Amino acid sequence: MKLIQSTVNMPLDRPSLSEANASITVHKTGSFWKKMSAYVGPGLMVAVGYMDPGNWATDIAGGARFGYTLLSVILISNLFAMLLQHLSLKLGIATGMDLAQACREYFPKKVAICLWVLAEIAIAACDLAEVLGSAIALNLLFHIPLSVGVVITTLDVLLILYFQNKGFRIIESIVGGLIAIVLMCFVYEVIVSHPEWSLVAGGLIPQKEIITHPGMLYVAIGILGATVMPHNLYLHSSIIQTRAYDRTEEGRKSAIRYATIDSTASLGIAFFINAAILILAAATFHTTGNHQVADITDAHHLLDPLLGSRWASVLFAVALLAAGQNATITGTMAGQIVMEGFLNLRLKPWARQLITRLIAIVPALFVAINYGEHGTSELLVFSQVILSIQLSFAVIPLIVFTNKRDWMGRFANSSLLSAISWVIAAIIVVLNVYLLIDTFT
């Protein structure tokens, strides 16, 4: 077996995302901000998955039906995400492997194949949300039929290929720019919606009815699935290795520190955007008695008359399109990492991206043609529940690996961090088992 330089000797044929591995210079001297600047990027790319169109559907449904109550779910989900993404980046930095490669090395072949299939299902569900979200945005902005919009999204593959050839920093810059567009749009939306800030603050405190109310629990689990994305755990453990930090113990310690700051700050932006969507829905729809709005299209059409601003619906659709395009970039890259990591299989980038997109386009096109707007919105919410169910199969291996001292060395989880991680995993598993029982009985 070939060995890589890592905290310990880990078997690996080639580094994760080999075409970009250690391609971005890290400043070893200078101020904190100069060093930090080299690590800004991976966190933003991961944060994209926490504000993709799937989140919009669940956040709008939660805000319109239940007011500000589910804000606490978004907050808790983001705290979960911050910890899990920290574990993910730490695994990549400490071992030189991404999560998919680690699964291939640790588990028996049959188990690893099962985990690969589940990861591909999660990526397909995520890509489905991106396809539908972009198609809906194109329909709202330019009145393009949903079925045509779904087909147009295949062109994203060509754009991604073009920018990948320009370098990894270019992709990170595009992602950061699109996030800025989404952020500015929702700052405006929240300002003009005039939410009751005392109720917003109260919504950040968890309520017992979230568990006892079946409808609220279903949406809450959808929010969890839309917020903590399984493919992001694979993605982050790989793209953090694009930084050319010293592959020494001190170099890894510094890299984990700066990468965690980048990740946590970026997920803070994602929290604001998710919370803003729910606040907008609660302030605009719930308080006016429009509790039935659980549909992005309905939300778009009602924003202008209810808020009295002709820009509200336009900026809403612009933000949706930017979010969908952003998620396409990171979701496709995660697909590449998962296939290469689990199967040690290298496909041409265009082939891998086209396969991923076609898997999402077929069901999206079928629903768009046969069921129209209402069907696509229901499929959007359902895709997030699928993501939530798949989450356990990424979280549990991640915790197992980062607890392994023979793999992680001094960077293995402390007893406290390990305990908190397992509590989070248990909450995720219990909620998903409940969801399955409730769905099928």
From TrEMBL:
It comes from the Bacteria. Keywords: Cell inner membrane, Cell membrane, Ion transport, Membrane, Symport, Transmembrane, Transmembrane helix, Transport. GO terms for cellular component: plasma membrane. It holds the Pfam family Nramp. The chain crosses the membrane at residues 66-84, 144-163, 175-195, 215-235, 256-283, 311-334, 354-373, 379-402, 414-437. It is a multi-pass membrane protein. HAMAP family: NRAMP. H(+)-stimulated, divalent metal cation uptake system. This is Divalent metal cation transporter MntH. It comes from Runella slithyformis (strain ATCC 29530 / DSM 19594 / LMG 11500 / NCIMB 11436 / LSU 4). The gene is mntH.
